[in-house]
Amino acid sequence: MIRINLLPHREAKRKERKNAFFAMLALSLVLGGVAVLTVAGFIEHKISNQNQRNEFIKAENKRLDVQIAEIATLKQEIEALKARQQAVEDLQSDRNQPVYLMDELVKQVPEGIYLKSFKQTGQDVMLNGHAQSNERVSELLRNLSNSSPWLERPDLIEIRSTGAGQGRDAKKVYEFNVKVGIKRPRDVDAAAAKLAQSGVAPAAATKIP
């Protein structure tokens, strides 16, 4: 009977498998390292791109902030120019206010009232005069409030009984002070346009030159 010793062959096979295992392990480590480096590089590239986008957005936001500030400054300058233009127009139109005031007082002051003086301060006019009775003063206030396109917001400041004349001509009268607002021509035009749109015929007003 022939006997064959297989131990060396088994040992050789064992070594081959062991070497193959280590080779596969090394290859796996290399491939894993390459994969990790590749993924890390890809992620780093994405992060870099995102950072660039963020920096671009920040730069654009700063540029837009500057433009918004410039626009706000321009708006303020435009509003200031409009205010100055309106002030000039008001000064030009206000030159005719004494004419409108005199014309309206002639129309709105009822019989039984004598105006001693009137004084304009800005858009307010102070009227001082004598009336035959309280009812005459009330009628004046109604006229100034409802019938005048140029005068508005009449306010009775003071009324008191006093005497006028001497001897047989002496009589009891009422001295009064009334404050009333006078409109600017542009306010009268705006009110007339509003009434025209609503279909209501506006009250007659002095024509604005």
Strand content: 15-25%
Instruction: Describe the oligomeric state of these chains in a short phrase.
Output: single chain
Largest sheet: 4 strands, antiparallel
Mean pLDDT: 82
Euclidean distance between termini CA atoms: 146 Å
Question: In terms of structural class, how would the helical and strand content be classed?
Answer: alpha+beta
Poorly predicted regions? 202-209
Number of strands: 4
Shape: rod-shaped
Range of helix content: 55-70%
Rg (C-alpha, Å): 49 Å
Total helical segments: 4
Give your account of this protein's structure.
With 209 residues, the chain is of the alpha+beta class. The chain has four helices and four strands. The chain has a four-stranded antiparallel beta sheet.
Keywords, please?
209 residues; 61% helix; alpha+beta; four-stranded antiparallel beta sheet; single chain; disordered C terminus; 21% strand
Brief overview, please?
The chain has 209 residues and is of the alpha+beta class. It is 61% helix and 21% strand.
Write the layout of secondary structure elements.
Layout: H1 7-94, H2 97-108, E1 113-121, E2 124-131, H3 134-147, E3 151-164, E4 171-182, H4 185-198
Antiparallel strand pairs: 1-2, 2-4, 3-4
